[in-house]
Amino acid sequence: xxxxxxxxxxxxxxxxxxxxxxxxxxxxxxNTAIDYMxxxxxxxxxxxxxxxxxxxxxxxxxxxxxxxxxxEVLPDILEKNIKVISNAGxxxxxxxxxxxxxxxxxxxxxxxxxxxxxxxxxxxxxxxLIAKGEPLTHMETGEPLxxxxxxxxxxxxxxxxxxxxxxxxxGAQIVITGRCTDTGLTLAPMIYEFGWKExxxxxxxxxxxxxxxxxxxxxxxxxxxxxDWESVPDLENIGFPIAEAYPNGEFFITKHxxxxxxxxxxxxxxxxxxxxxxxxxxxxxxxxxxxxxxxxEDVAENRVRVFGIKGKPATPFYKVxxxxxxxxxxxxxxxxxxxxxxxxxxxxxxxxxxxLKNLGLTFEEIRTEFIGANACHQHLENVAHVNExxxxxxxxxxxxxxxxxxxxxxxxxxxTGPPSVTGFAxxxxxxxxxxxxxxxxxxKEYVVPKVIVEEQ
Length: 456
Hints:
Radius of gyration: 25 Å
Number of helices: 12
Shape: globular
Strand order of the largest sheet: 11-12-8-7-1-2-3-6-4-19
Distance between the termini: 28 Å
Number of domains: 2
Strand content: 25-35%
Structural class: alpha+beta
């Protein structure tokens, strides 16, 4: 058993800083030399996007940024023996693995072991599950999945950390998963290195909290900090967080020396509150973590001790992330300048709505916001004078043709509405599909993760 391991955050979402994982690997030395790097690419809507990509091309359906990151750092991680764990596999982890192998071959790298966790994609099983009496009801509304089954785009189970740990046990240098918990990417190496068991609730909870602090990348090192945000230094060169973990469940959050950003207890507290419902029950497939037991202590510059965390037994359920098609939307905008910018924009909105009504166009939803006046706080509008206001109008409806027709009415306002207008660019607003989220629970015995570790 190692006395400690360091796990670095490399990505907080698909589209995050491309240089962050490269910096984490290349700056790895001395007191912040890392053993693992986790990269979190997935969000609920991401899965549906990837599913559409795979439908068009069976070789797609994963985060295509990830293989390019591996191309850049593969020689470094092999030299420094840094293991990489990521959910970049999306809905096609095997294709993602094959791309990694292809890159390794191009670089002349041999004997690379890559582990893959599959089995989370249950799209093909939905009808059988419903037939067996598994209703897959919406966690908030109680609505059964059957009501939207014909429009489902993706359905993926959130696996936990233990399948990833199994890949590490088999010697994987890189582990690629589909949908798993964000926290599991960090917890897994602790399970593997420290020998934690499925009944070690306090330890698993500690690793889960560490994962929660790393999962959003730079948000735990001063990015998006709501407190004294101006005190955060050198955000241009922000260093992503690193968890220094110990077998007893205690860990420290830090970052590489010479990088920007800020690791401090008040910054970490903001991240701890991210996506939190009941703080006493942060539920994952691995355990339930009690966030009210978390203690934080600033022990040095950019170094925070986290300890005292308690956990509870895991539930018998997995969460299922389901997405489905829910109609069409289009958004158009125009910008009005002073004088009377807000008055002009509001009048343009009135004219637009009247013309839509005259055309017999009604929508399931139509919304207008006036950016520069009330877009963030619609009920607190108190603008004596603004230099410019962007009128942004969006419609949503199950009838694509109606949404498409709405797009024809924005440009005419330029010459047939209030004066001092600009900002029409990019062409006529086009309909785009609305993807809705359907969270559900499924009993664990219905879904079994599968681990594949291969060497090239």
